[in-house]
Amino acid sequence: MASDNxxxxxxxxxxxxxxxxxxxxxxxxxGISELLASLGMHVVIASRKPEHFDTARDRIxxxxxxxxxxxxxxxxxxxxxxxxxxxxxxHGRLDLLVNNAAGNFYAPxxxxxxxxxxxxxxxxxxxxxxxxxxxxPVMKAQGGGRIVSASMTLHYRGWPQMAxxxxxxxxxxxxxxxxxxxxxxxxxxxxxIAPGPIxxxxxxxxxxxxxxxxxxxxxxxxxxxxxxxxQERIPLGRWGTxxxxxxxxxxxxxxxxxxxxxxxxxxxxxxxxxxx
Length: 276
Known about the structure:
This protein folds into two domains: 18-197 and 241-274, Rossmann fold, CATH 3.40.50.720; 199-233, no CATH class. It is globular. It has helices spanning 27-38, 53-62, 77-91, 114-142, 163-183, 201-207, 218-233, 242-253, 271-274, and strands spanning 18-22, 42-47, 66-71, 96-99, 145-150, 188-195, 264-267. The chain has a seven-stranded parallel β-sheet, with helices on both faces. Strand 5 (145-150), helix 5 and strand 6 (188-195) form a beta-alpha-beta unit. The two termini are 23 Å apart. By secondary structure, it is an alpha/beta fold. The chain has nine helices and seven strands, in the order βαβαβαβαβαβαααβα. The longest helix has 29 residues, at 114-142. Helix 3 packs parallel to helix 4.
């Protein structure tokens, strides 16, 4: 089963708006950036890896979108504030923040190093807070805005070797609900999206047999294993795509999301329910 990535939204839905997407140069973040730009929003792609910028900008510009980019490590509070100030001063507004920057990897909890724990928690949870706090005065002054943060479903049931990421994302959920209530008087809507399995480079690597496995075409074998997983473990029978997540971001950024705040939307084809 393939996903139909055609947007249901009108092309000018977000015309005149400005969005800052952390981790927006690749994977899910790039899918979000591309869709928002196609709907008329000027997207500012922020990433720790500037090498992602050229490809991302070229794709968005080729499709007729408006885009700029900025180097940003969301763990650096002063840099976060400087980037937000620059975006708001340059464009006169900041309508949407997408907290998509994240870092995670498999590691046994018993041997997880303090630095490994710190790196993931600081990117996923601290970074989400730093960016959200930085956009607050801008959105308050302009009469409102939207914040959408990336969560996950793994902490709903526990997931071995992902203690750092599950703890951080559980914190993102709690932060989302708290900020939604606290900042509602300023008409700042704060929500989160918990994506299901999206076949990014990291996911494909996890399904790829080791080099010494003796399998002639290891990557073909990985694709077969991934297809089997989708059929067996995901009720809707397919992997998700960045476009699946982007559609929900666009919905929350649109007028349809005006009365939605403090919610965590699971977009996973039913996978987390089937894995309980």
